[in-house]
C-alpha cells in the first residue's frame, strides 16, 4: 500500500520493469497531483526556456548577451499550483517533495552534455540552518551526475522577496572557493527557479572566469 506524498491519498500499486529493476523511481504522487506540475512544452526561448508563441531568443536573453551562460533548461512553468508545491518544498521545509520531480528532471537532464558536472546554487549558512537542506543540491542529487560545490553564498538576503529591478541592481551573490580546479570543465548550474536570470548568470560568470569551458543551467521552474 502506498500514499501520495502531496495529498496523502491512497495510490493503487503500480508495477513496471523499470520499477522492478530499480531504474525507475516508484511514483511518489497520484495522477491528479502529478498533473499539477505543468511541464514546459511547445515554442520557447532557445536560451532560457521561457514559453513563447514562437521559438526564438527572448528580449531578456538578448539583453544578457551570449557568451556567459550557454543555455538554460527548465522543467515546469510557474503556475499557481506549481508555486503552491514549491512553497511546501522550499519554504515549509518538506524535503521529501523532491521525489515529485525526480522523473521529470532526469528526463530533461538527458539533454545535458555527457561530461557535464553539476553545480547546485548554494544557500547562505543562515538560510541553510533555517531550512535544514539546500533545495538545489537535492535536485542535483536526483539527476545522478557528478556534483561540484565551488560556489559560496556571500549574502543571506532572500531573492524571492526582491522585485525584478532590485534583483538586477543588487550586488554580488557568490564567491568562488579556492580549492576547486575548473579549467576546461563542462558545468551545469542547478537551481530551483529561473526568473530574471540574475542568479545563474552571476554564478556562470564566476565559473567561466575560473576557466570552465562551458556553463549551462538546469532549473526546475521557469518563472
pLDDT averaged over residues: 88
For the record, give the distance between the C-alpha atoms at the N and C termini, rounded to a whole number.
Answer: 36 Å
What string, H for helix and E for strand, traces the elements in order? EEHHHEHHEHHEHEEHE
Quaternary structure type: single chain
**Number of individual domains:** 2
Q: Count all strands and give the number.
A: 8
Largest sheet: 4 strands, parallel
Q: Share of helix among residues?
A: 25-40%
Unreliably modeled segments: none
Description:
InterPro entries: ComF/GntX_DNA_util-trans, DZR_2, PRTase-like, PRTase_dom. This is ComF family protein. The protein is α/β, with parallel strands linked by helices and 223 residues long. The protein folds into two domains: 1-35, no CATH class; 38-222, Rossmann fold. Helices cover 32% and strands 17% of the residues. Strand 1 (2-3) and strand 2 form a beta hairpin.
Amino acid at each position: 500500500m502506498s500514499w501520495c506524498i502531496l495529498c496523502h491519498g491512497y495510490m493503487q500499486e503500480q508495477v513496471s520493469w523499470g520499477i522492478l529493476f530499480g531504474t525507475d523511481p516508484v511514483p511518489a504522487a497520484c495522477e491528479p497531483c502529478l498533473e499539477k506540475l505543468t511541464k514546459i512544452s511547445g515554442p520557447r526561448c532557445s536560451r532560457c526556456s521561457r514559453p513563447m508563441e514562437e521559438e526564438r531568443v527572448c528580449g531578456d536573453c538578448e539583453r544578457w548577451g551570449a557568451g556567459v551562460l550557454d543555455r538554460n533548461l527548465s522543467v515546469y512553468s510557474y503556475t499557481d499550483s506549481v508555486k503552491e508545491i514549491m512553497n511546501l518544498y522550499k519554504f515549509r521545509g518538506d524535503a521529501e517533495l523532491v521525489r515529485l520531480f525526480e522523473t521529470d528532471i532526469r528526463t530533461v537532464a538527458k539533454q545535458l552534455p555527457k561530461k557535464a558536472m553539476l553545480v547546485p546554487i548554494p544557500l547562505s549558512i543562515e538560510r541553510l540552518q533555517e531550512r535544514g537542506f539546500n533545495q538545489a543540491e537535492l535536485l542535483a542529487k536526483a539527476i545522478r551526475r557528478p556534483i561540484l560545490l565551488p560556489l559560496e553564498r556571500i549574502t543571506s538576503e532572500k531573492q524571492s522577496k526582491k522585485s525584478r529591478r532590485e534583483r538586477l541592481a543588487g550586488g554580488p551573490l557568490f564567491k568562488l572557493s579556492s580549492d576547486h580546479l575548473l579549467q576546461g570543465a563542462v558545468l551545469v548550474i542547478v537551481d530551483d527557479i529561473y526568473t530574471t536570470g540574475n542568479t545563474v548568470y552571476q554564478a556562470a560568470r564566476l565559473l567561466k572566469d575560473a576557466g570552465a569551458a562551458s556553463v549551462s543551467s538546469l532549473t526546475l521552474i521557469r518563472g
